[in-house]
Amino acid sequence: MGSYAYKYCMCFTRKFRSPDAQPPPDVRAAHLAFASASASDGAAHGLRRFVSQHQGESPADVDRILAMLSGGHGHGIARLVTRSPAPSVPTLDDFFAFLFSPDLNPPIAHQVHQDMSAPFSHYFVFTGHNSYLTGNQLNSDSSDVPIIKALQRGVRVIELDMWPNSSKKNVDILHGGCLKSIKEYAFCASNYPLVITLEDHLTPDLQAKVATMLTETFGDLLFIPSSDPMKEFPSPEALMKRIIISTKPPQEYKEFLKAKAENNQNCSGNIDDLPDQGSLRRIDSNADESDGKDELDEQDEDDSDEDDPKFQQDTACEYRKLITIQAGKPKGHLRDALKVDPDKARRLSLSETQLAKATASHGADVIRFTQKNILRVYPKGTRVNSSNYDPMNAWTHGAQMVAFNMQGHDKALRLMQGFFRANGGCGYVKKPDFLLRTGPNGEVFDPKASLPVKKTLKVKVYMGDGWRMDFSKTHFDAFSPPDFYTRVGIAGVKADTVMKKTRVIEDQWVPVWDEEFTFPLTVPELALLRVEVQEYDMSEKHDFGGQTVLPVWELKQGIRAVPLHDRKGVRYKSVRLLMRFDFV
To answer: Boundaries of each C2 domain copy (predicted)?
Structure first.
C-alpha cells in the first residue's frame, strides 16, 4: 500500500492532474504555512503539523499518512518527507498534488472506527431486497451474479426467496450454486456478519432439505444460536466472519397458516380461495392500498407462506435451530405488533407503506421496538421497476434493515450507498445515541419535533478535474469543452434537507468555482452530503458528470479530495473535486 501511494503521489502531477489545473488561493495560503514549518523542522514535521492542526487528523491517521508516503523513491512531497536529511520546503505543486489525491487525502475515513460490541439491534445494516433478481421485480431472471455484486459492495443482508421447484422435490433459488457463491464472496468486502433472510414458501420436508444444504455448504461459518429464542442479539464483533439466518420459525409458520385459513373462512367461507404460489410471489397491490386504520392485517408479500396442512415438527427441528433472528408477520393492531417482549428479541417486517402508517400514528412505539428488536422495511409491491423509497423515515425511527433493490441506480440508492460509506464501509453503522435512549417517562426521540440547530456545516467547492481522462473529448459537447456546475446539498430530516448549486463555468475541462455554502443542521448524526456535477446544456437535458454521497458525521475537516462516482455508484478513476469542510 505504501509503495502504491508513493508512486501515485509522485506521478500525480503528470498523469492524474490536467496541466491547466492550478492551486486555488486557499491551497496557496495553506502551502505557505506548511512551507514555513517544513523550513525550520523538516518536511515530515511540517506535514505532521499541517494534517494535525489544519486537517484535524488524529495521531493514528497522521502516522498512517506518513507511512503511506514512506515506501519508495522519487520526487515531490514523498521524497522530502521520507528522505531529506535537512529541513527542506516542498513545492506548491507537490503540496497541491498531495491535497488533490483521494487516496492520500480522503474526505472520510476508510477504517472501521465505531464500537462494534453493542447488540446487533444497535446498528443500521446494509440490506438488499430480492437480492437474486437481475432486473425488474416481476419477470427478470434469478441469478447469483447480483448477489455477488451486492456482497462486493459491502451489503450485509442478502434476501433469498425459497419456493418448491416444478417437481416439488427441490428448492428454487438455492439449488443453482447460489449458496456456494454466497460462501465464496460473503466476506470479500467486510468481515462483519452476513445475514441471509429466507422468505420461506416451503413444505416441512423441503425445510429439512434446506437445513441440510445450509449446514453442508457453510460449515463452521454458519452461526447456530445457543438459545431459542434469544433474549438479546449478539454483537457484530462477536459474529465476525459468521453467516446468520433470519426467517420465520416453523411453529410461527403453522400459526400463520391457521390464522390465514380462519380469516378466509370469515371473509368468504372458502379456504380454497387462498392465492396460488405465483400470485403470492408477485405483487399484492392490496398490501399498499389499505385504509390507513390502526391495523396491520394486510398481506405482506415478503412474509407470505404456502398452505401446508401437513406440518411436521420433527422434520422442521433442524431447520428451526439454525434461525438466529426469528421473524414474524405483523398481526392485528399496530401497538400489538410493536410490543417489546423482554424475554425475546425478534424481527418484524413492514413494507414502506406500512412503515409510513406506523410512524405517523405510533412513531414512539416504533423507536422503542427498534431499541431491542430488528425492524426490516422493504419496497412496496408497486415498485416493479426495482426503484426505491426515501430511507430517511426508516432511519430516523431506528429501522436497522432498510431493504433496497440494488438492480437500479436511482437517487434513493445513492443515498443508501453513501450512508454505508460510513464506518469504513463495513456495512454496519452504529445508531446515534438518541435513538437508543428512553427517558424516565418512556419518552424517545421525535423526528417530527422542531429542533434547534446542533451544528453548521460549511462546504467550499474549489474546483474539479479528471473528466478529460475518464470521458471522451466529445462526450459532453461535440465542438467545445464542457460547461460544468456542481449541486451541493443535504439529505436528512425535513428541516435539514436542501440543495444548492454553483454557477456554471463555461468551456472548461478543469472548472474552478471557489464557492462556499452553509448548511445549518438539526440532526447532523443522520445527515448526508449530496454532491453532483452536471454539464449545462441550453437545448437538452443536462449531462451527468459524476456524483457522491457522504455521511456528514464522518466528514474530515479541511481541504479534501472528493472522488466522484457514476450513476450506479462505481468510482471513476480520475474524476474528483477539491472541497473544504468545516463545522461551526
So the answer is: 437-566
Peptide bond into 379 cis (omega under 30): no
Say whether 31 is catalytic: no
Which of 20, 19, 40, 39 lies closest to 90, judged by CA? 39
- Written as nine digits, the cell of 210 is 434446506
Phi, psi of 142 (to 5 degrees): -100, 140
Cα–Cα distance, 9 to 17 (Å, whole number) = 11
Helices (H), 42-71: 43-49, 59-68
The sign of the dihedral angle between the CA atoms of 277, 281, 283, 286 is positive
The C-alpha atoms of residue 137 and residue 284 are separated, in whole angstroms, by: 12
258-292, pLDDT tens digit by residue? Answer: 665 666 665 443 333 333 333 333 333 333 333 33
DSSP assignment of 112-159 equals --S---S-GGGEEE-BBSSTTBSS-TTTPPB-SHHHHHHHHTT--EEE
Outline where DSSP puts E strands in 205-281: 243-247
CA distance 320 to 318: 6
CB distance 231 to 344 below 8 Å: yes
Percent of the chain with pLDDT over 70: 82
Alpha helices per DSSP H over 200-348: 204-218, 250-267, 277-281, 313-320, 334-337
**Residue 382 and residue 285 in contact, taking contact as beta carbons nearer than 8 Å:** yes
Q: What are the pLDDT digits (tens) for 537-581?
A: 887 789 999 999 999 999 999 999 999 999 999 999 999 999 999
* Rounded (to 5) percent helix, strand, coil in the chain: 35, 20, 45
Separation between Cα atoms, residue 189 and residue 470, nearest integer Å:
25
Catalytic option among 31, 129, 362, 397: 129
Burial class (CB in 10 A: 0-12, 13-18, 19+), 477: middle
Phi, then psi, of 241 in degrees rounded to 5 = 55, 35
Mode of pairing for the β-strands spanning 455-465 and 512-521: antiparallel
Contact (Cβ atoms closer than 8 angstroms) between residue 288 and residue 183: no
Sign, CA torsion 141/142/144/146: positive
Task: Give the whole-angstrom CA distance, residue 142 versus residue 407.
Answer: 12
Alpha-carbon distance 181 to 191, whole Å? 16
Question: DSSP class of residue 295?
Answer: B
